[in-house]
Amino acid sequence: MKYISTRSGAPDLEFEDVLLTGLSPDGGLYVPQAWPQFSKNEIRDLRGLTYAELATKIMLPFMGDSIPKDLFKKIVEETYAEFNHRAIAPTKQIGHNQWVAELFHGPTLAFKDYPLQLVGRLFDYFLTKRDKKVTIIGATSGDTGSAAIEACRDRDAIKIFILHPQGRVSEVQRRQMTTVRSENVFNIALDGTFDDCQDMVKALFVDEKFRDAHNLSAVNSINWARIMAQIVYYFWTGVSLGAPDQKFIYAVPTGNFGNVYAGYAAKKMGLPVEKLIIGSNENDILTRFFASQNTKGTMSMAPVIPTSSPSMDIQISSNFERLLFDYYGRDGKAVAGVLEDFRHNKTVNFGHECWQKMRKIFECYRVSNSEINSAIANVYKTTGELLDPHSIIGVVGGHKGHTNPANIMVALATAHPAKFPAAVVEATGITPNLPAHLADLLEREESYDVLPNDLDQIRDYIVNTLKKK
Ligand SMILES: *Cc1c(COP(=O)(O)O)cnc(C)c1O
């Protein structure tokens, strides 16, 4: 299996190199040259497998010859053995043909553990094999940071720097990053938004000298391996609820577009997905793009508004580029042109035809703060399921888009309610408890540095820190 860049300006790579590189040197994102196919019978054969067994089957075609099959299976088994629920990603029924998939049973209580716990182990395996070390630099809107730190901590071959927007992540989120006592972990609070953090990381990556001098690597959702590991739980929930003999609608609370793009990949691979519903908060760039009156297919940025679902407080959804690549007939030059235009003018027209085709699969709903509040209360009252503000955005979007009751709607619950307790308490009066391994989080000592939104200062900070270590 070869991987190609969405901007067609970089060499094709094998899985191992795509994993370790993250972002492509031409500024694009890597995608597989072709989608592996699972026939109906092959999907039926997935029934009854454990999560790790199913995960191995789904991901093996993406690995090519880069790792022996048995070893990969062992790494996948070790990855999910440490999760806090025996089913790994249990599904809970919340209505007729309506389900929630709980993706918050990993160590940092958000769905990002599902890919990152695996990615950390794969990094370790390939770096040790090559006798190489890397510097991982990542931006986080809250959850990626802790999940990445937890996946990379105490690994000799890795130093990890995580940038978070100062004051724009929840206390639990910040503490999950800043209380990790490990020699290879460095936290930067950037005076800016998540988009600023993400721009900073992108800028460091295109600085060739810096990138090569420190072997930069990324574990943001721009890293293909993360998307790959997220495809798994679409198949897992689909198969457990009757795929390939049922049709599915997935509802996904969306920020950087990585999770919902993995759903698109699952559809491309043969899972019967009728619709992918994107839930957004008040940062609704995608809802405005997909809205029916927007027949020109225009996408325009707006300032980021802080909300109760901070992991979705994003304007530029990086992984949208991967989707665009397919809808532009995999013409990387065209993708590069239109996205440079977008970055420059903050608004762009992707074309009516492209927009129309996307709308055959994707549907988008913006969920307001008051809807979040009443829906958390209502789902709790009617089902006993306590959901966080991100997860409920998926559920509300799912309810709106579940127009054909014969289809099975699965809403992805992306964070544990105890990660965002304020909104949950406000809606239900119930304070969700942190699981035992995090019970003393609010008493642990923090360590991080606050830096201005300035590329040179960030670069210097990283260089100096690496020198000292
Ligand atoms: C990261 C995150 C999201 C957004 O996922 P994307 O893949 O960036 O679209 C939604 N909910 C939670 C809790 C998250 O941590």
Q: Would you give an account of this structure?
A:
The structure is a single chain. The protein is an alpha/beta fold. Helix content is 44%, strand content 15%. The protein has helices at 15-21, 40-44, 51-63, 69-81, 113-130, 143-152, 171-178, 194-206, 208-213, 224-240, 258-268, 285-290, 320-327, 332-345, 352-358, 369-383, 389-401, 421-428, 455-468; strands at 3-5, 30-32, 91-95, 98-102, 134-139, 158-165, 185-190, 216-217, 248-253, 273-280, 298-300, 347-349, 362-366, 408-413, 449-451. The strands form 4 sheets. Strands 3-4-14-9-10-13 form a 6-stranded mixed beta sheet, sandwiched between helices. Strands 8-5-6-7-15 form a 5-stranded parallel beta sheet, sandwiched between helices. α10 (224-240) crosses α11 (258-268). The mean pLDDT is 95. The structure holds pyridoxal-5'-phosphate (PLP). Pyridoxal-5'-phosphate (PLP) is lined by residues 110, 112, 143, 221, 253-259, 311-312, 390, 414-415. The site of pyridoxal-5'-phosphate has 16 residues, from α11.
